[in-house]
Write a structure and sequence with these properties.
The chain has three helices and nine strands; from the N terminus they run αββαβαββββββ. The protein is mainly beta and 130 residues long. It is globular and about 40 Å long.
Length: 130
């Protein structure tokens, strides 16, 4: 799925989104979903769409990973220190010369604005998401 922000087209309107095909428990279990804490937020002016470069601590096994995220509806101050959920085994992707190492997860509003998934403050970085 290619992420678009489109206030007029509203590509993620819940009344129009079809259900995706079943993938089974094995498909879900294959994803390495982890809790992580945002430790650095940098502007990403080279990106075609407004984005931040995020560095996230995923604990002692995965360490810190970086991603590009279209979450400029959050300020750098709101992101720094925040717990997020990341899909950490989707492979790397080069975006405007930057290597993105994971996908940060959020719910999409109808226009494509991302609302990051929330976790309680006492969750440890690296905790698996079930």
């Amino acid at each position: 799925m290619r992420h678009e922000i489109d206030p007029d087209g509203r590509p993620y309107d819940v009344g129009r989104l079809p259900r995706k095909p079943d993938v089974g428990a094995e498909g879900f279990a294959a994803l390495d979903l982890r809790a992580g804490r945002v430790v650095q937020v940098e502007p990403f002016p080279e990106a075609r769409k407004p984005s931040w470069k995020l560095t996230v601590d995923f604990g002692p096994v995965l360490g810190t990973l970086r991603t590009s995220a279209q979450v400029t509806n959050y300020t750098a101050e709101e992101l720094r220190g925040r717990l997020v959920v990341g899909a950490c085994n989707l492979g790397r992707k080069r975006i405007a010369g930057f290597v993105s190492e994971f996908l940060v997860l959020g719910a999409l509003e109808a226009d494509g604005t991302v609302r990051l998934l929330g976790l309680p403050g006492d969750v440890q970085p690296g905790a698996p998401i079930a």
